[in-house]
Amino acid sequence: xxxxxxxxxxxxxxxxxxxxxxxxxxxxxxxxxxxxxxxxxxxxxxxxxxxxxxxxxxxxxxxxxxxxxxxxxxxxxxxxxxxxxxxxxxxxxxxxxxxxxxxxxxxxxxxxxxxxxxxxxxxxxxxxxxxxxxxxxxxxxxxxxxxxxxxxxxxxxxxxxxxxxxxxxxxxxxxxxxxxxxxxxxxxxxxxxxxxxxxxxxxxxxxxxxxxxxxxxxxxxxxxxxxxxxxxxxxxxxxxxxxxxxxxxxxxxxxxxxxxxxxxxxxxxxxxxxxxxxxxxxxxxxxxxxxxxxxxxxxxxxxxxxxxxxxxxxxxxxxxxxxxxxxxxxxxxxxxxxxxxxxxxxxxxxxxxxxxxxxxxxxxxxxxxxxxxxxxxxxxxxxxxxxxxxxxxxxxxxxxxxxxxxxxxxxxxxxxxxxxxxxxxxxxxxxxxxxxxxxxxxxxxxxxxxxxxxxxxxxxxxxxxxxxxxxxxxxxxxxxxxxxxxxxxxxxxxxxxxxxxxxxxxxxxxxxxxxxxxxxxxxxxxxxxxxxxxxxxxxxxxxxxxxxxxxxxxxxxxxxxxxxxxxxxxxxxxxxxxxxxxxxxxxxxxxxxxxxxxxxxxxxxxxxxxxxxxxxxxxxxxxxxxxxxxxxxxxxxxxxxxxxxxxxxxxxxxxxxxxxxxxxxxxxxxxxxxxxxxxxxxxxxxxxxxxxxxxxxxxxxxxxxxxxxxxxxxxxxxxxxxxxxxxxxxxx
Length: 732
What we know:
By secondary structure, the protein is of the alpha+beta class. The chain is built from 19 helices and 26 strands. The chain folds into 3 domains: 5-184, 2-Layer Sandwich (Aldehyde Oxidoreductase, domain 4); 216-284 and 338-427, Aldehyde Oxidoreductase, domain 4; 292-336 and 433-460 and 499-721, Aldehyde Oxidoreductase, domain 4, CATH 3.30.365. Helix 10 crosses helix 13 (461-472). Pfam families: MoCoBD_1, MoCoBD_2. This is Isoquinoline 1-oxidoreductase.
C-alpha cells in the first residue's frame, strides 16, 4: 500500500464514527481482524479497540475481585502501547474461547495465574497495535518505520517535531500486516511496569460507581430467596404455599432442585415471607455426618490405605530403621468457609429465547453451563455479564448461586435477583476441605535423613468437574453433561489435568533429604467442597512447616539454620529465608512476653518466607508483627504485590485463629460472624513486605501470603509456651 499525505488527509477527515483496530493474539485463531464499515468496529472477541477519538478500550479476560487484575493486566497493554494506563477504559470479557485461561482450558480466574498467563500475550497485544500504528504513520510520511517513535498515544516523526495521534491512524493501521514476531520493549525502556502504583478501579469503588453483583438493577426486577435443605443432599417435597402466596409483595413460591424459592417485589418482602415457610424435607439421601465422624473416617482410611504414591525418593522405611531418632506427628485442619464480604448473588432474565445473567463469578463459562442446566437453553443462548466481585477466594468458581437464579428466572420470565443471606452463605456454601496429615521424620545426629508425608482427604475436582467438563465442550447436548463429568474424572491425569488440590505444596517439598515419600489417601465424607484461597497449599503448608519446626527442635538446632542447610540447590528459597530472618531480627531476642516463629513455603510459583512475632494477652493470642519476604519474579505493580501479600497474611491469620466449620448430624453449626469470626481491624498486626527484585517472568501474589503465616504463628506459640499445637484453629 502506498499513500501520500493528501490521500491520508482525505481518508482521515472524511471518515465518521468510531474506527477500531483489532489486535490478534497468537494462538487465538478465532479472533478476526479487519475493519467492518457497517458497524464501525471489529468483532467483539478482541482485546483492544482504538477509536478515531483516541479512546482505547481493553477487554479484561480475568475478573476483578480485589486482587488487582484490572490494574495489573491493563498496565501490560499500556506499557507496550505506550500510553498512560489511566487512559485505557476496561470492560469485562464476554464468554468466548479467546478468553480462556491457557493454564486451565477454561475462562476462569484462580490459582494466582492471571498475571503469569497474561504476561506475554497482553504485551504482544499492545506491541502489535503500536507497531501497526507506526507502520501506518511511516507510510503517510514516506519514511522508514523503525525511525519513528511513539509517546503518549502519538507516533512521532523522525524529525522529532511532527506527530500523528493514534486515532488518526486506526483505519490506515488496519491495512498493515506484521510479518514475524513482534518485538517487546526491553526492561530498560519500561515506563509503567514495575513503577505503576495507582489502582485504576479505585475511584469507581470509592465513589460507588463500580457495579458489583449486588448493584445490578433492571426494570421490573423481582427478588428471590432460596430455602435450602438443612442437610446437604436433602430435597423439598412440599411446603405451605397457600400461606406464603398471600403475604405482602409475594409474587410466587415453588419447589426447585435446590429447595423452595420465594419471589417478591422487594428483598425484604421475600425474606419476611421466608420466615413463614414450613417445608417438608426428604432427608433420606442427605449428609448425616459430624466433624468427629469425618476425622474418625480419615484415620480409618489412613490406616487401611497407604495412599497413592505422589513422590518417592530413596527408601523412607530403611531411613527410619537406621535413624537415631524417629519423630511422628499428626495434623488436622477443619472445614473452612470463604466469608466473602459480598454474599452469593446473581440476577437472571429469561427473555426472547435466551437468558442474560449478571453475576460476580470467577468462571463465566461455567456460569453459562450452570444457567443452561436449569432452563431449556443451550449455553450459546446464555449471556453472562460479569460484574466486579466483592471477594472470591475460590468460592465463586462454583456456580450454584447462578443455577438457583437461572432456575427461578426460567420459571418466571422476568428479571430476578437472587440473594443469599450471610447465614445461608455460611451454612450452605461449598467449603475448604478438612484434611488429616500423618508425618514421620528420621534424624541422625541432627541431620534429617527421611521424610514421610501421608495426606488424607478428598479432591476438589470431584466436586468441580460437574460444570467444568461441559464448559470445555459447550457444543455438547445437555444430556451428556453428567457423562462428560464422569469421563473427566475417569481420565484424570490422562485426558484431563491431574487434580493436585490435595497434594500441592507437599510434592514440591524443597528440602534436600535423601529419602522422601509423599502419598495421598483419597477419601471423601460427602461434604461439599471447592477451592479456597491457596487451596492445598493452605493445609500442606501448615503440616510441612510445623513439622519442620518440630524436627528442628528435636535436633536441637535453630529453625532457620535447620532449614537453610537443606536448601543448597534452592537459591530463591534461601534468599527469602535469609531476608525475612534478617528483617525480623531473628538473631535478636524477642521483646519480653513474645516469641517468633518462622515458615518458608513456595506456592503458585512464588517464594515466601515469614516471621511471626506473637504473644498471649488477656487469655487470647496476640500477633504483633509479621515480616514477609517474597520473590514473585518481575513485579508489575509494587503496591498490588504489597497489598495482596498483606491481605493473604490477614486471611491466613483469620483461619489460624478462628477458622472452623463444624457439623452435627449433617448440619453446619456456625451461622454468621459471631461464631465464624474474622480478624478485626484492631487485631491486625504490623505487616512488613519485602519484595525481591527479579527479572524472571512474574508469578502469582493473590494467594502465596496465606500458607506460611499459619505455621509461622503456631511455631511462634511453641517457642513461647513449649506446647506444640497440631490442630487448627490455634488456641491460647
